[in-house]
């Protein structure tokens, strides 16, 4: 959520930045927020002045009575009574204005960083680098949804039977490959200095608002109505909310956490080849990395996190490319995002496997996540997160890119974790 002070003092910068997103009604929302903020401050000022005057008048009433000036005292008492009623009305108006202002602020997306290009869709993203050679497979190479049947390692029909579409069952070496990837990703995060967390996979409404999934993404999350809880779309939500309403010291920064969780998405995409098999699921596994930093360090840490993801893909021997997302393709909360895509040889297409984002103070403002520097000044922190990595499309690319006549060869980095070199 954008800070009101930023909206007031940097209105032109905010509007110019938000124009990169091509977000509908942005200027109208910003101007409405400023109007409500002005009204809020006017009511607060009027209320404070009336309270001060009423307190002074109340003292005078007693003095007038002692002096035998009953009529003047009565008139002043009536003025105090009227002032108290106006103050009461002001407080009621203030509550309405503050609620409306809060709802408007929830609808305004984050301002893109200066480096972020303007654009309406993914076609306008910038491809910053491509690493690795895309494999040339034989003419009879199969996509992963055929390979999983051939080697009996993932069963979508069983998933439909017990849950529904988009909930696969991993079997045998398929299940062991999943576990190996999770352990590998967590081990690499540990080496990079991340503290492992195992958070709940359900969150309350306050947590959803804290990291910006609410009110923006209700339709994408599974909701447990009886308990008022949401199944998490990513470990970012519970891990970042560990620090909601927290004041950190400068010595504790940066905070570096990592966690594995299953993730749940109600809207898993439309029908078609591009969402077949593991390409788009309702439930999937992911290891997430989260950092909390001082504002002046956050963009250096974004690059550090990006390099961490790149290192994982190199160790898995997967060709990848890194994209800088344009304003129109970024998430609501993000100030800047890098996407990583791996090449799927059998599908002959690039598959997104990670997003690494800097939210600047956008989430911290919602979370009331602050730190006190050595001079004692309180300031909002910056939050960052990244997928390191999401498993389904990594598995798809490993299966497709490494298929041979003998079977599917496991990347060397995973063999210590799988306990086998081939799926055959």
Overview of the structural elements:
The chain is an alpha+beta fold and about 425 residues long. The model has no long low-confidence stretch (mean pLDDT about 95). The strands form five sheets. The protein has an eight-stranded mixed sheet.
Give a topology summary:
Layout: H1 4-9, H2 11-19, H3 26-66, H4 70-107, E1 126-131, H5 144-150, E2 154-155, H6 156-162, E3 169-170, H7 173-191, E4 195-197, E5 202-203, H8 205-211, E6 223-224, E7 229-231, H9 236-241, E8 247-249, E9 255-264, E10 283-293, H10 298-315, E11 320-324, E12 336-344, E13 349-358, H11 362-367, E14 370-372, E15 378-380, E16 382-390, H12 391-401, E17 408-409, H13 415-418, E18 422-423
Mean pLDDT: 95
Strand order of the largest sheet: 1-11-12-13-16-10-9-4
Number of strands: 18
Portion of residues in beta strands equals 15-25%
Largest sheet: 8 strands, mixed
- Which structural class matches the secondary elements? alpha+beta
